[in-house]
């Protein structure tokens, strides 16, 4: 039983149309699945990723039109990073973000890596991280129709940052339950705050890290548009996921039990700081119900929701994602 890395990150948007434009046109990611939140089918669930939505490349969004402003704080998934091939790609992105009037901080160092911190139009806290020195989990492949050149494009998810007030409970989950080890740290950009701790699992590298920030100067986060709902971690297959579910029950940690998401299977649980973790299988993937060439163009529903299609389509606003539009 080993966690292989980050599987996906799911965040909140208040406007699917503007979200689709930013992540596909500005960031050059591919919409690999346009579906709905299976727990509330009145809202879209959009998956942006590499060319086919390989595990570890998916950044997903729930559309909640009335979502309020996010007030950043603790007990939060406070940063999502996106991998690019190398330092040269980061220079390209610095120019591109400026060209598109995206709020960013320019190239800087984070430990041994070059990064760019930036915000999407809703204030989503994002980081581009260079894979120049990566020797761990390999990235995905940029879609051939991306608005960004293949040698510069986003190739997957990098480290996920958690912000907590009391770190011990989260550290125990990462190191005693999950298979993470503390492998380093780097200075916090906020003066007077402790170094940010790096936890790594599996093959390690940019695609297999959680960064833990301790803040004693912030209230608990009030989430809204531009916040992250949960982080999912990679489990090899269904048999292994069952073992993880059993392990959660052994230590009496409340969890969702096995959840069928059609594109993968999952188990959800929270740590004592309120961080929502998901364990998700690598397969079967997003081409299980759509041709690879046409991923994300139509509203995809798993078989157990198909009989509700007309009702679901009536509730969600039209979102044109076909490349001909």
From TrEMBL:
Residue ranges annotated for the VOC domain, each copy included: 5-131, 156-282
GO molecular function: dioxygenase activity
InterPro entries: Extradiol_RC_dioxygenase, Glyas_Bleomycin-R_OHBP_Dase, Glyas_Fos-R_dOase_dom, VOC_core
Record's keyword terms, sorted: Dioxygenase, Oxidoreductase
Keyword Nucleotidyltransferase: no
Source species, domain of life: Bacteria
Name of the protein described by the UniProt record: Ring-cleaving dioxygenase
Native organism: Oceanobacillus zhaokaii
